[in-house]
């Protein structure tokens, strides 16, 4: 394995190693360039996949899954335990790859690596507890023995976006695989190598080679073919694509979990620790250049502290260091590509012409790289500005003064999304506000990192921000079918032929009454 990468093309051998891990036929298939956003230059290519590649991937994964499902959880766990260690051991190379593909800064790349280690450790530590058979109280005490069993779904489809391609490339696959499934994954075409290097480390750790398949290609063709064949679909991406996929798998009555868009609010109460607010806001808004589904895009501030927060926050943002490269000192990297740069610029330009005030940023930085855009803070954003309600998915946040916390909560909830929300306040105020926020994750005195990294608790979106949850027991058990096995002994559920139906019904009624009083029924 290589130690580090440069900002240039991937070394040939390394590229070939990664390409050989895809299920794609390579001969005549079209090559699609993968570009480094830092420079706008190609770093390698992948093959454009189609239906036959997806068919082959499912065939191979299904074959491998038969035996994998018979492997005891203790045996499966050992592989992921080694994978955890390999991820940490090769972390510098992994950060290089993900920075090269996405143009993010090093700290955002490190977040991805650590997230994989944290999630993997959690599922290794808890897999047996979640997956082992559970004895449940039966229909009739003592007479009925009931067991809840978890059976793998089969082969799970995984479709992921470009923004966190290491983390999203593997951390949903880990619980799916540990639960006994195969996986067929489709990474975004902009960032295939991060997913492939994860598969390489999984195989190095001992995963059966064909169990996890990666097919590269377009969303519609490869993603659509995966949705047509998988036994469960895990999707992370836009609400628009989530709807298409939801319809597709719904038609086949196949399970679906999706983490989609957000327009995430953050509230600053007048009793907040303002030094802490100022220290945390840049990460909450500008990690990964704001290209993060849980990133903060709206800030509502109680009027008593509005001026101070705005003045100090803007001063800090103006001093943020931007740049291309692998150095730790860079605080914000590039956007991923021209389409993202155009999208972010259009949102800000439209808000400006609608009357918004640009407090800082608001322009591209071609001097740093082709897709850089300054961290941008806006105020006085009118209703007619699209970015008031639509997700920018870039380094753009607006601030608004509110007369009360009730008003802040009303505005925070006034959205079709419900992914992440945050409140900075005294602990007591914060807890009260948190209960009123309509979001799947709520940070108190934290933007999003604490909810994300608290992997024992399921996380996902309310409203149009998603379906289902990742992390926690749910994040693993959704990849299983429940088998309810009930063993009936000595007494039939139908009663006895020796007593009439009427007598039996009266006996059942008495038993239910007495059972309730004695609390011997579940
Ligand atoms: P983003 O805006 O974050 O790129 P998308 O929803 O467009 O979000 O893309 C997320 C993932 O979904 C990518 O891997 C993309 O290729 C895939 N995708 C896009 N359109 C479809 C589709 N119609 N069917 C299946 N997958 C798709």
Automatic annotation (TrEMBL):
UniProt keyword annotation of Protein biosynthesis present: no
Gene3D superfamilies assigned: Aldehyde Dehydrogenase, Chain A, domain 1, Aldehyde Dehydrogenase, Chain A, domain 2
Pfam family membership, one = Aldedh
In the record, what terms sit under GO molecular function? oxidoreductase activity, acting on the aldehyde or oxo group of donors, NAD or NADP as acceptor
Q: What are the coiled-coil residue ranges?
A: none
Where does the Aldehyde dehydrogenase domain lie?
28-485
Record's keyword annotation contains Oxidoreductase = yes
In terms of superkingdom, the source organism counts as Bacteria
Q: Which residues cross the membrane?
A: none
Which residues are annotated as active site? 259
Which terms are listed as keywords in the entry? Oxidoreductase
Q: Which NCBIfam families match?
A: PRK09407.1
What family does the database annotate? Belongs to the aldehyde dehydrogenase family.
Q: What is this protein called?
A: Succinic semialdehyde dehydrogenase
- Tell me which species this is from: Corynebacterium suranareeae
Q: What is the lineage of its organism?
A: Bacteria, Bacillati, Actinomycetota, Actinomycetes, Mycobacteriales
Which gene is this protein's source? gabD2
């Amino acid at each position: 394995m290589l130690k580090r990468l440069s900002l240039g093309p991937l070394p040939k051998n390394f590229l070939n190693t990664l390409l050989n891990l895809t299920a794609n036929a390579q001969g005549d298939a079209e090559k699609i360039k993968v570009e480094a956003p830092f420079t706008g230059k190609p770093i390698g290519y992948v093959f454009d996949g189609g239906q036959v590649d997806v068919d082959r991937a499912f065939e191979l994964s299904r074959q491998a899954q038969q035996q994998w499902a018979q492997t005891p959880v203790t045996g499966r766990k050992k592989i992921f335990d080694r994978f955890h260690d390999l991820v940490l051991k090769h972390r510098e190379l992994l950060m290089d790859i993900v920075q090269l593909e996405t143009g993010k800064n090093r700290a955002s790349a490190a977040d991805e690596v650590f997230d994989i280690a944290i999630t993997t450790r959690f599922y290794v530590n808890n897999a047996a507890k979640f997956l082992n058979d559970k004895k449940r109280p039966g229909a009739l005490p003592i007479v009925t023995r009931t067991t809840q069993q978890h059976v793998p779904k089969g082969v799970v489809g995984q479709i992921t976006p470009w923004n966190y391609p290491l983390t999203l490339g593997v951390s949903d696959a880990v619980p799916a695989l540990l639960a006994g499934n195969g996986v067929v994954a489709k990474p975004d075409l902009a960032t295939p190598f991060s997913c492939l290097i994860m598969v390489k480390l999984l195989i190095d750790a001992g995963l059966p080679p064909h169990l996890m398949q990666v097919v590269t290609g377009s969303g519609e063709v490869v993603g659509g073919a995966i949705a047509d064949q998988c036994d469960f679909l895990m999707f992370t991406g836009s609400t628009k694509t989530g709807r298409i996929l939801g319809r597709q798998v719904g038609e086949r009555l196949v399970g679906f979990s999706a983490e989609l868009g957000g327009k995430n609010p953050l509230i600053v109460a007048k009793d907040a620790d303002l030094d802490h607010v100022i220290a945390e806001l840049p990460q909450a808004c500008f990690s990964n250049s704001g290209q993060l589904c849980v990133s903060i895009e709206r800030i509502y501030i109680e009027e008593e502290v509005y001026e101070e927060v705005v003045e100090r926050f803007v001063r800090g943002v103006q001093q943020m260091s931007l740049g291309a490269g692998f150095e730790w000192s860079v605080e914000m990297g590039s956007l991923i590509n021209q389409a993202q740069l155009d999208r972010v610029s259009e949102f800000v330009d439209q808000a400006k012409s609608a009357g918004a005030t640009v407090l800082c940023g608001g322009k591209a930085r071609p001097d740093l790289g082709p897709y850089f855009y300054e961290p941008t803070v806006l105020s006085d954003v009118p209703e007619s500005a699209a970015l008031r309600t639509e997700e920018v998915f870039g380094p753009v946040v607006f601030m608004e003064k509110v007369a009360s916390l009730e008003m802040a909560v009303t505005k925070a909830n006034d959205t079709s999304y419900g992914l992440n929300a945050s409140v900075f306040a005294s602990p007591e105020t914060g807890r009260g506000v948190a209960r009123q926020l309509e979001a799947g994750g709520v940070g108190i005195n934290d933007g999003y990192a604490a909810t994300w990294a608290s992997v024992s608790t399921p996380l996902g979106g309310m409203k149009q921000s998603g379906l289902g949850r990742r992390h926690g027991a749910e994040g693993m058990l959704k990849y299983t079918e429940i088998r309810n096995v009930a063993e009936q002994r000595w007494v039939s559920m139908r009663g006895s032929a020796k007593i009439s139906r009427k007598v039996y019904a009266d006996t059942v009624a008495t038993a239910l009454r007495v059972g309730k009083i004695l609390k011997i029924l579940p």
